[in-house]
Amino acid sequence: xxxxxxxxxxxxxxxxxxxxxxxxxxxxxxxxxxxxxxxxxxxxxxxxxxxxxxxxxxxxxxxxxxxxxxxxxxxxxxxxxxxxxxxxxxxxxxxxxxxxxxxxxxxxxxxxxxxxxxxxxxxxxxxxxxxxxxxxxxxxxxxxxxxxxxxxxxxxxxxxxxxxxxxxxxxxxxxxxxxxxxxxxxxxxxxxxxxxxxxxxxxxxxxxxxxxxxxxxxxxxxxxxxxxxxxxxxxxxxxxxxxxxxxxxxxxxxxxxxxxxxxxxxxxxxxxxxxxxxxxxxxxxxxxxxxxxxxxxxxxxxxxxxxxxxxxxxxx
Length: 316
Fold this sequence. Notes:
With 316 residues, this protein is of the alpha+beta class. Helices cover 17% and strands 50% of the residues. It has 3 domains: 16-69; 72-147, Elongation Factor Tu (Ef-tu), domain 3 (Beta Barrel); 159-315, Jelly Rolls. The strands form 3 sheets. Strands 9, 10, 11, 12, 13, 14, 15, 16, 17, 18 and 19 form an 11-stranded antiparallel beta sheet that branches. The protein has a 6-stranded antiparallel beta sheet with strand order 1-8-4-5-6-3, with no helix packed on it. A two-stranded antiparallel ribbon has the order 2-7. The chain starts with 15 loop residues before the first helix and ends with a strand.
């Protein structure tokens, strides 16, 4: 033994009470470590869940980006700006589908563009029915991307409401006192039209209008969502201007009248959208009436009866 320390001859045993206290303290310390271990396990699980959610969100973002990329493409097909069916060579494995609306814009000049809906996409061939366009010429630098449907035609310039009428079961709607040639353009906006009938238009001349039944020239285009084909009719000497067929649940019709007081020719543009339970039919007519007589009236004629709201605007 060391000279500096001499252990006692007898170490007294712990009392029973002290031993119980020591065991309780030990149990408390062990329980505390178990609680800390459980807490750390929970934190680790939370971190793993956050990592998993972050990875899932990143994958979703990547999938969405890839899908968006598959709805945008380019084409070097040489295509002339205009309405009707247009065919473009594009990439394969894109996400374009029948009925989707797309914008087709020239890279050289964005003011040269077309807008319409996809009629087919197969392999590397995309076919679009163009219903609206701006500019002219033939280009081969197209950017094509998904877009929304075309909104309603706006009123360029200052529009003045000249006349409004609601028809119910009528055979015709007449504007015979309001087209006074004080405006260079007039616009007839027709909404909620129903009656299950074909609509045509006649122009009237004279203070007590005589409605003309000759000298109309038109090109009429019509297509519905139930068919990929485009129906085109035209005439150079017709008895009236065809506007389209109205179904039983209603449609919208716009009639633009340009320069009714200018001699020799009058120009009319019409657009009808007929929404039925299972199909939507879109009809456009580009029309002229050849005469030196000033137009003073417009009559919308129904082959059956017609119901709806009709408003005439003068546009400065």
